């Protein structure tokens, strides 16, 4: 393994040692198919159902309302497509209300439903911090709304949306409400009842679990059209033999992140605040993006005047620091982040974005050396 100063925990996290240990027996020793009737199969089935219970209790829902998927992306796809088609069929509702700061797993799915399947997508405004106002949901929601989807904690700018308040508006109107909590699930206490959510997407690899596994949590929602058809797995909602080792790993990682939330957040918030003030003090023309308070505890994001964010990321990488820029990396023609544009940043500013996300292994010393590297790289790029 090579040594790097990792500051990209919102992209993915390493798998925790005890998560890996929990998964190992289910690859080769306890390898049964949970659908099989024999003892080996039933042993895998027991592990699957234990994981389902643990994940359900992380969300405050019954085990049978947990649908395991191949990750956050698939959960978002199942939520949007499954709910939209079902709502159109049962209620003739064909409008999808969405925020302009969604992950592509949500936004591209919504746009495909619009362009190929005749749904109407209604995009909410956001303020300068990328936050949705529940009153704007209230203004647009109607009996024609098939679902509302608003990201919980933003991957690019860290802003946390007022999910319970949006949930209350949706509940009042009887419209299904989905939130992509792939980032938030790693850092905030989840409770679908409190938040009045009908669907929630969770992924394991942003919370020290394995890649390629996620879930869709469902509450008080009768019909979702399955997107992947086949066998009767996952209560007929998602066909395909369950990936038992990854599911066991996800349950372990999710439970740990929910159980240790206060200790983890104290550690991360301190470091994040230290990082934000260090960057703002040492680099001219720097601005924090996203909400100053209502933001994920491990998340700092900036724009720097007159800088190409992708080049900055490459300079930092050369110095041994792994960070991320918000813009889609297209060699030669960088695209400014759609999200920063929606928040009112100019194209030029939006191109100079940098995301720094912290995790268990982050220390003040590492942050100090990162800030020096950012300062040096920006001086060089501005010359
Ligand atoms: C990472 C991420 C996804 C996609 O999850 P995968 O498990 O990588 O498919 C979706 N939404 C958000 C907010 C994310 O951060």
Summary keywords:
single chain; 383 residues; seven-stranded mixed beta sheet; globular; binds pyridoxal-5'-phosphate
Query: Cα distance, first to last residue?
Result: 35 Å
Fraction of residues in β-strands: 5-15%
Bound molecules: pyridoxal-5'-phosphate
- Structural class computed from helices and strand pairing: alpha/beta
Shape descriptor reads globular
Which value, in Å, is the CA radius of gyration?
Answer: 21 Å
Whole-number mean pLDDT: 95
Our count of helices gives 14
Strand order across the largest sheet? 2-8-7-6-5-3-4
User: What is the chain-wise order of helices and strands?
Assistant: EHHEHEHEHEHEHEEHHHEEHEHHEH
The main sheet comes to: 7 strands, mixed
Count every beta strand, where a strand is a DSSP E run of 2 or more residues.
12
Task: Name the poorly predicted regions.
Answer: none
Write a brief structural summary:
The chain is an alpha/beta fold and 383 residues long. Helix content is 43%, strand content 13%. It has helices spanning 17-23, 39-59, 72-91, 104-117, 134-140, 163-173, 192-195, 233-236, 244-259, 261-282, 309-318, 338-342, 347-351, 364-382; strands at residues 5-6, 66-69, 95-98, 120-123, 145-149, 177-180, 199-203, 214-218, 286-288, 299-304, 321-322, 353-357.
